[in-house]
Specification:
Structural class: mainly beta
CATH class of the largest domain: Mainly Beta
Number of strands: 24
Order of helices and strands: HEEEEEEEEHEEEEEEEEEEEEHEEEE
Number of helices: 3
Helix content: under 10%
CATH topology of the largest domain: Jelly Rolls
Shape: elongated
Radius of gyration: 29 Å
Oligomer: single chain
């Protein structure tokens, strides 16, 4: 009996320790996963979408989930809440929570009337959380855009094709990548460009072997838009993002870049159509400093001279060779309204 009486306090102490420390469920690790591997939204309003995460069992403590959004569409086609910071979306998790979420906010000005696709990946979790190696870590968001463009304005080209993994389908539908003259290396022409936080098109004929034909290997390419009806628009304007590197004019009368407009190009009559230099665009392009990477918006350029007409716009790139006389240009976020 005496031995039992001496054991009871020890057993009581052990029970207390078990209840409040090592025998507690508080240190359970919760498995985090996207609620679904795919989210498809069909809308004509571009309302924000909630992207959900499941936690099993409930989180034992306050923590976080870190998510990345590959590609370069953040800020131009969408933003999130919480916002992207240092390349990551940091989603908070409350103690006791069985779910968490972040909001995907679609940007009308960037998406316009096009469909949209974006992938997300869980790359790290905070204390008390874990993930599977593959299952549940990836989510594909797909927007089926039912907005109807009743006329041609606003005309928006954000070159989404360059972010969707379909760059081999370049140029975008309705556009024409016309090689007027190709250099001997085949490096003239426009292609998808993703850099400086933007998605667009670019040119860069330069290559080391170009030294062999330095100064005598001309190329010229035109990126021509589909026909754009200005209809009854009053004071329409054009704007786009532009950057150029390495100033190398063809001669004293010919720049290595330009923008021309036609009112009678039908897709088949390039040689005979009337093309006019759109000087406000050329001036804006010239104002960009070629000494460093720095894409800038042109601001609104007045198209009122073309009111009531159908127009095609053409971005032009020329290079005297595929070496040091090869200027590089980048174009993004083309808009007429």
């Amino acid at each position: 009996m005496r031995q039992l009486s001496t054991l009871i306090p020890g057993l009581f102490l052990l029970l207390c320790i078990c209840l409040f420390s090592s025998c507690s469920d508080d240190d359970t690790v919760a498995l985090v996963r996207f609620s679904s591997p795919e989210v498809e939204v069909m809308t004509d309003t571009l309302t924000p979408s909630s992207i959900s995460l499941e936690l099993t069992p409930a989180a034992s403590e306050t923590s976080n989930v870190r998510i990345i959004a590959p590609q370069n569409a953040y800020g131009s086609l969408f933003i999130t809440e919480p916002p992207l910071s240092a390349g990551e979306i940091n989603v908070p998790v409350s103690s006791g929570a069985t779910s968490a979420s972040f909001e995907l906010i679609l940007l009308e000005e960037g998406i316009g009337f096009e469909d949209f696709q974006q992938d997300f990946e869980i790359i790290a979790v905070g204390p008390g959380l874990t993930t599977n190696e593959f299952e549940g870590r990836y989510l594909s968001f797909n927007l089926i855009n039912e907005r109807v463009q009743e006329d041609d304005l606003p005309f928006v080209e954000n070159f989404n094709i360059c972010t969707s993994g379909s760059a081999e389908e370049f140029p975008p539908e309705g556009w024409e990548n016309r090689i007027v003259e190709q250099n001997s290396f085949g490096t003239g022409g426009f292609f998808c460009y993703t850099g400086q936080g933007i998605t667009g098109v670019g040119t860069n004929p330069f290559l080391d072997d170009g030294i062999a034909t330095q100064g005598d290997d001309y190329s010229e390419a035109w990126l021509i838009s589909p026909p754009i009806s200005l209809g009854g628009a009053e004071a329409p304007g054009l704007s786009f993002d532009f950057d150029r590197r390495f100033d190398a004019p063809i001669d004293e009368n010919t720049l290595e870049y330009g923008l021309q407009i036609s009112t009678d190009y039908d897709g088949t009559n390039f040689e005979t159509a009337n093309w006019e230099v759109f000087q406000p665009a050329v001036d804006a392009m010239t104002a960009n400093d070629p000494g460093f990477d720095g894409i800038e918006n042109t601001g609104t350029l007045d198209l009122s001279a073309y009111e009531g007409q159908d127009i095609s716009i053409a971005f032009i790139h020329r290079a005297a060779d595929a070496y040091f006389l090869a200027t590089s240009i980048r174009v993004a976020n083309v808009r007429i309204e």
